[in-house]
Amino acid sequence: MPQFQTWEEFSRAAEKLYLADPMKARVVLKYRHTDGSLCVKVTDDVVCLVYRTDQAQDVKKIEKFHSQLMRLMVAKES
Fold first, then answer.
1. N or C, fewer C-beta in 10 Å, the chain?
2. pTM for the full model?
């Protein structure tokens, strides 16, 4: 299970994983209040990508990433 250190690498890999098979990909967001960490996991049951952060500024990036995935999910295929 690769854990990414930079957000840019994670978001590119996660989007690529989603676009490979949109029906199998899922996103899990977990917040631990005790240590203030946020974990984003994208998986398709074969590959699992993980990004962990404890920085408040990363929340905006994660929100933008989620909205981008939602746009991809509702977009009509061409």
1. C
2. 0.84
User: What is each CA distance from 41 to 12, 25, 35, 71, 76, in whole angstroms?
Assistant: 13, 10, 18, 19, 25
DSSP assignment of 3-52 equals EESSHHHHHHHHHHHHHH-TTT-EEEEEEETTTTEEEEEEE-SS-EEEEE
pLDDT tens figures, 1-25: 679 999 999 999 999 999 999 999 9
User: Quick one: tokens of 48?
Assistant: 């699992």
- Give the phi and the psi of residue 47 in degrees, each rounded to 5: -115, 135
- Among 41, 44, 40, 49, CA closest to 19: 44
Reading the block at residue 28, the tokens are: 């899990």
Please state whether 45 falls in left (phi above 0), alpha (psi between -120 and 50) or beta: left
